[in-house]
Amino acid sequence: MTPLPREFGAKLGAWDPVNGWSPIHWSDTYAAESISGVSRLLVAPRQPLSFVVDALALYGNSFKLVYLLVTPPDGYEFARYELDALNREEVSSVLEEFGGFLGGDARHHIWIHALDGGGTLIWDEHDWVYLYGHLASATDLLQSKGFREGKPEIPFPHLHNEDPDQTSEMERLLKALPWVKTPVSNPQ
After folding, report:
1. Is residue 82 classed as helix, strand or coil in its secondary structure?
2. CA 63: distance to chain centroid?
């Protein structure tokens, strides 16, 4: 199979034998899950960045932001990069400034931990968002935005977009903020 074309614009590509790699865009669905006794919502938004920014309102106004590098390019290592005590506006600003990279490159996860309202949002390398805490309010938000119940499935075969041309954007993100870096052995 051939790699994803440059400037693919999506985190995932599905293989179509006729058309080659096609971007995967989800269709605004969600599913309730329980993992090891912990309840969460799995959300597959059409516009993940916009959804994450909207969902922050469920979780108060004080956050820890974590950039988890799960597929490091040459010269980098698996690591967690953390920022503590950001308000909602600051988190939104970071997400929006780097939204093209965060939404188009699959080498990372974004974790947003609520410090004053409990709960966590995770935006993963598949463009899925996991919501922990405030699930009734989160379900109301999803329904008000027209999301429907349904569990997404990742097609086979698929590729994660890890565009080397985006490494400069990753570097810009890591240099723009006072991250605290912690190497990790298995970030998944």
Report:
1. strand
2. 16
- The pTM of the whole model exceeds 0.85: yes
Model pLDDT for residues 73-105, shown as the tens digit of each residue: 888 999 999 999 899 999 999 999 999 999 989
Nearest to 150 by CA among 58, 36, 70, 43: 43
Query: What's the full length of the chain, in residues?
Result: 188
- Copy the structure tokens of residue 113: 């931990």
CB distance 101 to 9 below 8 Å: no
In the chain, how long is the greatest CA-to-CA distance? Answer: 50
| DSSP sequence for 89-118 | HHHHHHHHHTHHHHHH--SEEEEEEESSS-
pLDDT at residue 3 in the model: 57
On the CB side of 51, CA atoms within 13 Å amount to 30
Domain boundaries along the sequence of the chain: 41-183
What Cα–Cα distance (Å) separates residue 171 from each residue in 72, 74, 98, 126, 140?
A: 11, 12, 11, 21, 37
Task: Tell me the per-residue pLDDT of 107-136, one tens digit each, with 9 for 90 and over.
Answer: 999 999 999 878 999 999 999 999 999 999
Phi-psi category of residue 48: left, alpha or beta, with phi > 0 → left and psi -120 to 50 → alpha? alpha
